[in-house]
Design a protein that fits this description.
Structural class of chain B: alpha+beta
Order of helices and strands of chain A: EEEHEEEHHEEHEHHEHEHEHEHEHEHEHE
Shape of chain A: globular
Helix content of chain B: 10-25%
Shape of chain B: globular
Radius of gyration of chain B: 17 Å
Mean pLDDT of chain A: 93
Oligomer: heterodimer
Bound molecules: zinc ion
Helix content of chain A: 25-40%
Distance between the termini of chain A: 10 Å
Largest sheet of chain B: 4 strands, mixed
Number of strands of chain A: 17
Number of helices of chain B: 2
Distance between the termini of chain B: 53 Å
Strand content of chain B: 15-25%
Chain lengths: 379, 139
């Protein structure tokens, strides 16, 4: 089959690779219809991830059609249109049973690596091959889906592919951002980053009854999108003092919930990013947040961050929460909301390309060129 | 026989003591102390995870070389299953040595995880085959 492979630092190539095969009884094979780029892939693309090998297939947000099921798969059959959670989780361990699917004990084939890096193994993720999970990515014609009954969800008839593909990762991540922040009626919420996750966090906060939601970014085209499609307030940090502006828009208190949806790889080098040592958006979130408020870290971070404003966290009584998304918990609810038109995501797919043009799609996505929020590939 | 299943209640006082890591976190690497217990928590009761007198796969081949304990985990989290080399040695004796790389702790951990996966999900999760395994698929 054809797949978009890592070909070396900052290099991608569409190549012929082996078709995936059933490797476990709970596996199924999905023929990909849509596969979206994601900021988390940029760390892989830049070659800063150990164990990534030339020829590994990238991508973890996808939707497709079931073509083959293993003997232990009960909920799916060939022909089903499914969206697959980007996180690979077993559904059976203690963490999964608590709804902490991203923390799954059994979702990775290389748990020793994350245990060494972070002290505990975490669940798996597609497109993090080698020792970081062991699963080929979705920028391909076919994908193997382990624990198929746990991670794949039938897409309701009225929901389009272009909408539902965001239920794989960006929408559950955004929902989690609002949930970890405990966002409720009357809250003022600020979100750093107007990418797909930031926009969907803002949308989730509004669905949960937030009074005001403000999204901070540097790109006017994205901020216009936030205003038009999400109904949140834009704030361009190139023109205004963010902390002062947020204080003014929240009665001098500061937002109740501040969500960082930027990550380490978004803008390197620039005001935000330039490596994990400059978490500028996160610092601004901590600084701006009201006393006793909650700061949620949603961006993808893998290593260490110094110059973190711990003094502000402690003296203002902040809660800092974070996770990779526990999508299995929210995807059915998000699909229902999509079917009812409460949650619209297709505008995020600013660039739709055939898989063959995957390299170009990533260049657009990485450089934020041509108003690119997400490139979505179809094999 | 080194196999011992500790049920809840009175016998639990005999439960193994897992040494706590003290001091500052260190860089990742092999633990310098030989014979450390490797422990995983497995969903299920001790008598299901480690039935009396029977070693779960894939630890069976290490019978006689490691000791194995199971005890209920606090808070209803299942069973704490622990293994360490007999006599606290860093290397395994005899044929078992052939099964192990040079890091016994890592090897035991990996085996315990497989026991856990089998008990919890019914299978050991396998990685996708890398293109390198399949020379016919040169790019
Ligand atoms: Zn993603
Ligand atoms: Zn699990």
């Amino acid at each position: 089959m054809r797949a978009l492979c890592w070909a070396g630092t900052d290099e991608l190539a569409v190549r012929e690779v082996p078709d995936p095969e059933l490797r476990n009884a709970q596996d199924m094979i999905v023929r990909v219809r849509r596969s979206a780029t994601c900021g988390a892939d940029l760390a892989l693309l830049g070659g800063r991830t150990p164990f990534l090998a030339v020829g590994d297939v990238l991508g973890h947000e996808f939707l497709g059609e079931v073509v083959e099921v293993g003997p232990e798969v009960r909920r799916h059959r060939p022909g089903d249109r499914v969206v697959v959670c980007a996180a690979v989780s077993c559904g059976a361990c203690w963490f999964c049973r608590q709804g902490l699917f991203a923390c799954c004990d059994n979702g990775s084939t290389g748990p020793a690596v994350t245990e060494a890096a972070w002290g505990q193994p975490t669940g798996g993720c597609y497109g993090h091959p080698g020792a970081l999970g062991g699963f080929a990515g979705s920028h391909a014609e076919y994908v193997r889906v382990p624990y198929a009954d746990v991670g794949a969800f039938r897409v309701p008839e009225p929901v389009s592919d272009d909408r539902a593909v965001f239920a794989s990762d960006a929408a559950p991540t955004g929902w989690m951002g609002a949930e970890l922040g405990g966002v409720g009626p009357g809250d003022v919420v600020a979100v750093w980053g107007a990418g797909a996750v930031g926009q969907l966090t803002a949308g989730a906060a509004l669905l949960r009854g937030a009074e005001r939601v403000i999204v901070v970014d540097r790109h006017d085209d994205r901020l216009r999108m936030v205003q038009r499609h999400v109904g949140a307030e834009p704030l361009n940090y190139r023109y205004v003092d963010v902390a002062a502006e947020l204080r003014e828009r929240s009665g001098g208190r500061g937002p109740d919930v501040c969500v960082e949806a930027v990550g380490a790889e978004a803008e390197a080098p620039g005001r935000w990013g330039g490596g994990a040592d400059r978490p500028l958006a996160l610092r601004e979130a901590v600084h701006s947040c009201r006393k006793g408020g909650t700061v949620v870290v949603l961006g993808t971070w893998t290593g260490f961050v110094d110059a973190f404003p711990l003094g502000a966290v402690m003296n203002k009584g902040l809660s800092v929460r974070s996770s990779r998304q526990h999508g299995q918990r929210w995807i059915p609810m998000l699909l229902d909301r999509m079917a009812r038109d409460e949650l619209r995501t297709e505008h995020l797919a600013t660039h739709r390309l055939p898989l063959e043009r995957g390299t170009e799609g990533y260049a657009l996505f990485r450089d934020r060129a041509d108003g690119c929020v997400r490139a979505v590939f179809s094999p | 026989m080194a196999l011992a299943v500790l049920a809840a209640g009175a016998t639990a006082v005999r439960a193994l003591v897992v040494p706590r890591r003290a001091g500052w976190p260190r860089a990742a690497g092999p633990d310098p102390r030989p014979g450390r217990w490797q422990v995983v928590t497995v969903a299920g009761r001790p008598e299901d995870v480690l039935p009396t007198g029977r070693w779960p796969e894939p630890l069976r081949r290490l019978d006689g070389a490691v000791e194995l304990h199971a005890r209920p985990a606090p808070g209803g989290r299942g069973t704490e299953l622990a293994a360490r080399p007999l006599r606290g040695e860093a290397a395994l004796p005899g044929p078992a040595a052939h099964l192990v790389g040079d890091d016994l702790g890592l090897f035991l951990r990996e085996r315990l995880r497989q026991v856990k996966q089998l008990a919890e999900t019914g299978e050991v999760l396998r990685a996708d085959r890398s293109p390198v395994d399949r020379p016919e698929a040169a790019g």
